[in-house]
Amino acid sequence: MEEAQVQQLLRQGDVLAARRLVDAWLAAQPDHLLAVQYQGLTRLYCGDAPGAEESFRHALALDAALPRNIANLGIALMAQGRYADGLPLYESRYASNIVAHDRVSFPGLAAGLQWQGEPLAGRRLLLVREQGFGDQIQFIRFAPQLHARGASRVLAWVSPGLGALFSSVRGLDVVTEAAPAADSYDLWCPLMSLPLLLGLNAPQAADELAYLRAPARTAHWQQQVSGWTQGRPTVGVVWAGNAGNSVDARRSLPTELMLDMLAQRNGRTALSLQLAPGGMDQLERQCRDGIIPLLDMLSDFSETAAVIEQLDLVISVDTAVAHLAGALGKPVWLLLPAGPDWRWGRAGERSDWYPTMRLFRQPEPGDWRSVVDAVKQALLT
Hints:
Order of helices and strands: HHHHHHEHHEHEEHHEHHEHEHEHEEH
Helix content: 25-40%
Number of domains: 3
CATH topology of the largest domain: Rossmann fold
CATH architecture of the largest domain: 3-Layer(aba) Sandwich
CATH class of the largest domain: Alpha Beta
Largest sheet: 6 strands, parallel
Protein name: Glycosyltransferase family 9 protein
Organism: Uliginosibacterium silvisoli
Number of helices: 17
Strand order of the largest sheet: 7-6-5-8-9-10
Strand content: 5-15%
Distance between the termini: 50 Å
Shape: globular
């Protein structure tokens, strides 16, 4: 009963209520494994990564072999910047369901061919997609290092919608959205295992400020955007993620606050990069507020990249578009909930992954008002 209630509160984004319920659950059952696991999650979501580490170590003491406990501890350590300790533990994500909304799955790939970091010695390496679009955009940055490790050929199997975009990545010989033939590679590696296998002990920006570029239609979008802006500065905005994501209620900004945030945008033309408009009423409100919706004009990420290359600034919640703007080397303001994903750390305005990114953080869980006010002030400067 308690688990269902906690899950419901987390899906609704009410982290503080979920934490109070978990605390009451643990008061009655101090060593209940599920309660301890949820204590770690709610602490993490409240921005208390050291407390989350304590909870996940407690969970490991209760069941040291459970992959979820191992992977969650890795996440809590990486949230504190302790990558050398956290990355090896994060490998247990494959055997857990911590990424159940985008379950890691490697059909047809032989376990014996998984790269373990040994010298590649002229072999062909297949990089395998996992988790979400943003994860793949972030970690494809490591592809150029693989030829230097001896790979004769580097292939990337990516999610539909990313193939054209990733054709611009230096160091990739082949990019495919379809399952590759078994005889086309010698070893394979999940994209998000690259930092561990490359021996990285800290977040690392790409070798190039812009390691992605729009492969096509840039001239079309340059003409289109310049017609809309008439020389004015331009900002693109994304305020909501995929509603199917279990943390979407925490990371997405209510439309009302987005409209308020852009009400005084200091002469900038605003473009909505949001693919799901949230209904015709919201679409009409955006138009009334002078925000140009692109909607179905963006067919895939290469098209979105071509638009972003024409913009002066992107403002986004934690979605793939934020990663895309950072990978393109464009200025991007990222709006984060309290206790954000591990890759954004615990404090500060700068990202070690994307030099052109500025972070705006909730001071308390659910406090988007403070974030919006900070962005409004920044837009005036």
